[in-house]
Specification:
Keywords: Coiled coil. With about 170 residues, this protein is mainly α. It is built from four helices and two strands.
Length: about 170
């Protein structure tokens, strides 16, 4: 009998061990299932990595082109500002000359009426050499800077419009 009691005690201990391992096995199975799900999700994301790398390279290339265009536009803007400041100085000088009355200036005003056609010719020549900004509305950020006299030679489809800055008389 003693032997049976010892055997029952051993089997009870063994049963307790197996039940605790069964509980551990259940939690390990749940953890494994979670890991399998995560691996499947990460594999689908890993498949997208080459396409994302290619898109990143393309966007980086486009960004460098846009930055180069921006640098060109900034340089053009700075040159325009310098020209505007120069013209302001010239206007100030001309106003100063007009403000000082002299006999010679009244004579030159009278004689300037006879020279008016040549002034218009000079103004027309200057106007032809003015720079204008032309953009295609179908292309974002795509602009060209051309001389006004070259505008007439540019081909224009009915769907394209050109915009020029600085001159609204055309």
């Amino acid at each position: 009998m003693e032997e049976l009691r010892n055997r029952i005690a051993e089997l009870t201990d063994r049963n307790d061990q197996l039940q605790s391992e069964t509980v551990k096995l259940g939690s390990l199975t749940a953890e494994r299932d979670d890991l399998v799900t995560r691996v499947a999700r990460l594999e689908t994301e890993a498949v997208m990595a080459p396409a994302l790398r290619q898109e990143n390279a393309t966007l980086t290339s486009q960004l460098s082109l846009v930055n180069a265009q921006l640098d060109g536009i900034r340089a053009s803007y700075d040159a325009s500002i310098a020209e505007v400041n120069s013209l302001k100085d010239q206007i100030g000088q001309l106003r100063g000359r007009l403000a000082t009355p002299s006999v010679q200036s009244s004579r030159s005003r009278e004689s300037s009426h006879a020279r008016a056609p040549t002034k218009t010719k000079k103004n027309d020549d200057k106007k032809k050499e003015q720079l204008v900004v032309v953009r295609n509305p179908n292309e974002r950020g795509g602009i060209q800077i051309v001389r006004r006299c070259d505008l007439r030679g540019m081909k224009r489809s009915p769907s394209q419009h050109s915009h020029s800055e600085g001159d609204k008389s055309d």
